[in-house]
Amino acid sequence: MKDRTRRASCSCARLTVRCRGEPLSVSLCNCQACQRRTGSAFGVAAFFPTASVRLDGDSTVFVRTSDEGREVTFHFCPACGSTVYWFPERKPGIIAVALGAFADPAFPAPGQSVHDEHKHPWYTLAMPS
Q: 0.70 cut: is pTM over it?
């Protein structure tokens, strides 16, 4: 379904992302920074080429250094605080969109789990093979 467009948004829908086509990848991250950012045990990102994405609405920016020492630029809604998308320096031309911002239970599952050394031992995740 190459021409499919998916819409992601913050909680108040003032910051939106429209992504054309399928994600390049979907990744679950167990790093402690993602745990803090999401308020959950992990974060999940869908990666798209920036050329296939349309951004609408104002965002506030937060830049942090990843565990690998590269910058990640997060964009969140200044009204409701939801992190919607980010630009990882290590992946030029790629935008990461928070999987939860799509609010779509049929969204493709993560194909990988990273930073498993920080994974909470009480959850298990069946990764596609």
A: yes
